[in-house]
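Example record

Each entry pairs one chain with its bound ligand, HDE.
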Amino acid sequence: MANSLDRDDAGNADTGNAETGNGGETQQLASGKDQVLTTNHGVPVSDNQNSLKAGDRGPTLLEDFVLREKIFHFDHERIPERIVHARGSVAHGYFECTDPIPDLSRASLFAEAGKRTPVIVRFSTVAGGAGSVDTPRDVRGFATKFYTDQGNWDLVGNNIPVFFIQDAIKFPDLIHSVKMEADRGFPQAASAHDTFWDFVSLMPETMHTVMWAMSDRGIPRSYRMMQGFGVHTFKLVNEAGQAQFVKFHWRPKLGMQSLVWDESAKLQGADNDFHRRDLWEAIEAGDHPEWELGIQVFDQALADSLPYDVLDATKIIPEEVVALRVIGRMVLDRNPDNHFAENEQLAFLPSNVVPGIDFSDDPLLQGRLFSYLDTQKSRLGTTNFHQIPVNAPKCPYANMMRDGMMQTQVPEGRANYEPNSLSEAGEDGGPRASARGYRTAPQRVEGEKLRQRAESFADHFSQPRMFWRSQTENEQAHIASAIVFELSKVGLDHIRRRVLSQLRNVDDTLAQRVAEGLALDLPDAAPSAQAATDLDISDALSIQKNWHATLQGRKVGILFDAGSDNAAIQKLSDDIRQAGGTPFTIAPKVGGLKLQDGTLTADGQLAGSPSWLFDAVALVLTTDAAQKLAQDSAAVGFVSDAFAHLKAIGHDAGAQPLLDRAGIKADAGITDLAGLTKAATQRYWAREPQVRDLA
Ligand code: HDE
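C-alpha cells for the complex follow.
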C-alpha cells in the first residue's frame, strides 16, 4: 500500500500506484519527510499561516475552505472520555506461553511453549478524568488485549482481585458515588468525600475491596510493580468440551512496590504523569516491563468445599488454598505511536473471549458482558469501532455484518446473507460457521426468575478480616491511617459513624484505631447478615512480606552543586546502572556546573525535581555548597521528605550541614555513597513511627 503521497514541488500528486475507491486500498495519512501539506481531501495547501481575507486588514471570507476545514476538524477532536478508567496509559508487547495447557483449554495462545501472541495493555485509574493525575488512592485498571490467531481475547482486570459490589446493577450507583460530587464537580480523582463513604457505609459488600483500596495497593509505585487480576471466576474449556474454573493473575517481575501516602499526594503536584512517564521511559530505555501469567484452576467440587462462593467477585481464593500455576509471561516492549489512536480509541470488551475460554455465572461479570460493548458505541460513535486499527483482530475476520457509520470496508459481491447458494452459480458465497468455532461449555441451568442475592454471597466480613490479619504491622497502620484520612474529608458525621460501625464487623482493633484517629467514640457494630469467621491468614496478600530487594526499576536522585566531586557522581551512577537502577542528577541550576573535576549538566533542576520522584537519594556536596543549600527550602525539603518517605539517603562528608538542617537521624537507610546501591533496594518501614503519627 502506498502510504504517502509523492508530490513534486508544485504539489502535483503522483497517484500512479495508489489505488483508491471500490475494492482498492485506502490512502493513509501521509507521514515522513518532504510531505506536502494538504487538506483532508488531498488538495495541496500553499499558506498555513494566513486565512483568506478581503484585503490584508479586511474580514475573513466564508469561502476559505482551508480555514473552515481546519477549525471544523479541531472543534471535534475530542471524543467522550471513558465513564470510568478515563485516565490510562498503554503499551504494546507480547504474551509468551511457557507452560502449555492443552489438557485444560483449547485456546491457541496456550497451545505450545514459546508461542507468542501480540498484546496491548492499558493501565488506568478509575475515578479521575482523562486529564487527572496518576497517583491518587484508587483501584488501577490492568486490561490486556491478546490479538490471538483465533480472535481477540480481552482480559479486562484490575490490580485488586476483588470488586466493591456483587451485582452489576449496583455499578452506576457505586461510580456515581465515587466520582466528583454531582452538584459541585469535586473532588476529582479521590474517594475521600461524603458520597463514596455514604455508599460504602450502606453496602457492607464493599468492605473487602475498601480494605484493599485503603492498603498500599491503592497507591502503587509504578504500573510495572503491580499485580493484575481477572477478578471473576472464568472457565477454561478443553478440546473435549470439559470445563474447569479458573482465576487469572499477573505477577510483576519487579515485585510489588507502593508509595507512601504523603508522597503520592505530593506527586500529584510534582508530576501528574508519574506512572505514564515511568512506563514510557522504561520501555524507551529497553527496560521492558514483564509479568508472569498465573492461573488458579479448580473444579466444582473444590468450589463447593469453600466457605464462600466463587461466583462472588468480592471474594478471592487465597494462593495458599489453590496454588498459582505460571503458564506464560508478558513483555511490554513498544510504546504507542499515537495517544489518541491507540489509547483513547482502544476498546476492551470482557465479552471478547476465544475458543477455550468461557464465562462463569458471576452476576458482576454477566453485567459487564453487556456494558462494554454498549459503551464503545457511545465513546467511539459507531458499531464499526472494531475496524479502528488498535481494536481490529490481527487474524482474518469475515461475516455478513454490513454498513453502519464510518464503515471503512468495501465488501465485494452479493453474499451479505447466510445461508445462500450463490456459490452454485460460481459466485463467492461468503463465510460460513465452522465446527471449530467458539462453543459455549454446556451447563445445566434451572431456577425461578427472581431478583435475589444468593445466601452464599452473604458473608461480607470474613475476607476483609483475613486481608487485615495478613498484613504486617506497618501495613495495618497504613490501612488505619488511610481510612482516618478519608473519613476526615467526610463532612457528614452520621456517615463516619456508620463506616466505623461496619469496620467493627471487620476487626474491632481496626475500628478502634480509626475512631481514635478521628477522635470519635466507637459506635455499636452494624447489624450484619453473617458474622465474620477467622480464615487462615495469607502471606501472599502482603506487599511487604513479598518485597523484592532490587534496584531494578528504581530511580535514584543525585543532588550536587558547584564544586562537587564529579568522579564520585560518575562512580555512583555507574553502580546504580549496574544494579539495574536509573541515576538522575539534580542541581540548583541546570546549565553545566563547574565541579572539582570537570563540568556536569544536571538532568533536572532542584525546584522541579523533589525527592518524591525518586526511590532513594544521594547528596554529593562540598561543605560550602551544603551550607548554602541549608538555606534553601527546596534542598532541605528534598532531604527531609526523602527521610519522611522512608527512603535511603546516601551522602558524602560535605553534605552534613544539609542533613543536620533537615533533622536527619542516622538509621539503617542513611549511608555513605558506597553503601547506597544496596540501601536503595529498600524502604525503611522501621523509621515510620519517628516521622509520622500513624493511626
Ligand atoms: Fe469496568 N467498565 N465495569 N470493571 N473496567 C469500563 O468500559 C463496568 C469492573 C475495568 O482501559 C467501561 O470501555 C460495569 C470490574 C477496566 O479501556 C464500562 C461493571 C473490573 C476498565 C465498564 C464493571 C473492571 C473498565 C468504561 C460492573 C475488574 C478500563 C469504558 C458490572 C475486573 C478499560 C469502557 C480500558 C472500563 C463497566 C466492573 C475493570 C462502562 C458495568 C469488576 C480495567 O463499560
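Residues 363-380 form the longest helix (18 residues).
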